[in-house]
Amino acid sequence: MDNSKNNIAKKNNIENFMQKTAVVFTGALICCFLWGSATPCIKGGYEFFSIGADDVPSRILFAGIRFLIAGILTVFIGSLGSKKLLLPSKSSSSKIFVLAMLQTVIQYFFFYGGLAHTPGVRSAIIGALNSFVAILVASLIFRFEKLTMRKIIGCILAFAGVVILNLAGNKSSGGAFHFNGEGFIFLSTVSYSFSSVFMKRFSKTENPVMLSGWQFVLGGIIMIAVSASFGGHLVIAEGKTVLALILMLYMAIISAVAYGIWALLLKYNKVSKVVIFGFLNPIFGVLLSAIFLHEANQTGIVTLISLALVCIGIIIVSKGKN
Fold it and tell me: What is the pLDDT of residues 263-306, one digit of tens each?
């Protein structure tokens, strides 16, 4: 009886801690910085591994290897934290498959493909839609929460901040809409939005770190198998071996750490309270792309205005009853 009470008290303490705004903000900030750094990393990876813009099988292989390593790291780290090996049960197998398809295979098939035909800075404005779509999916389709005017206003303000930043820093990169570029990036955001909601749903009965790790493993294996059947291959560019291997490991760490933290945040909080912070993701994506890919100059008063709008939007959605 005492053990049961202690377990309940411990569970409540963990839940209360994970629901603190400061904890959600810090965790989401780490995730968004890591995800934002993925854009220049992926483009750098195309160069290091000699992957052409139209070489779809090799792009899939590149992504598959990354996520397989990420899954192994996630399961390993999660097992250390739980002091037991995180293995999927029969009841969790179908959930892992759904997440693997939405969060890894479909999302990153479109993201890697779209990024090959879209500048890193431009892709950020489309990627910013994922937070708004996730809130719509959670509210209108799954009925996890109500779609209030406050949430709509907060999303619009945050998205406006991203639009201003991208338009101001991307004046010279105009052009027609391309389905295999901007269109693919948008489809990846839709897949991500559904995966966030499903993760919230599944983590009610399953360990979110276990789900995240094994969906990466399964998703990575599927992508590698598909790539192999179409002749995908990676060739490290001359003199880039060390950088290429470090890059691949870092990208795996991005996924293992970011999605692990994100899954925990979704488990203990409403979807809107977590995903609204996703508007910080394109901010980091723009800034890091500008620095490492030399695609745009994103400094000065425009950046400050954009960040202010994003922060105001986040505060509006986060405050009050969700």
Answer: 888 888 887 788 777 767 767 877 777 777 665 554 557 666 77
State percent of the chain over pLDDT 70.
82
Q: Is the dihedral of CA 164, 170, 176, 182 positive or negative?
A: negative
Would you give the end-to-end CA distance of the chain in angstroms? 35
User: Minimal CA–CA distance to 162: which of 118, 131, 194?
Assistant: 131
Instruction: State residue 154 phi and psi, 5-degree precision.
Output: -60, -45
| pLDDT for 5 | 61
Distance CA 305, CA 169 (A): 13
Looking at 172-279, list the stretches that DSSP marks H as alpha helix, in order from N- to C-terminal side: 184-202, 208-229, 241-268, 271-275
Phi-psi region of 89 (alpha: psi -120 to 50; beta: other; left: phi over 0): beta
Mean pLDDT of the 162-185 span: 65
**Residue whose structure tokens are 């749903």:** 201
Q: Report angle CA 40, 42, 47 to the nearest 5 degrees.
A: 95
Per-residue pLDDT tens over the stretch 200-228: 889 888 898 899 999 999 999 999 999 99
Q: Which of 67, 10, 30 is nearest to 284 (CA)?
A: 30
State how far the alpha carbon of 98 is from the alpha carbons of 179, 194, 308, in Å.
Answer: 25, 10, 37
Interatomic CA distance for residues 218 and 221, integer angstroms: 5
Cα angle vertex 176, ends 172, 181, to 5°?
A: 95
The more confident residue out of 97 and 260 is 97
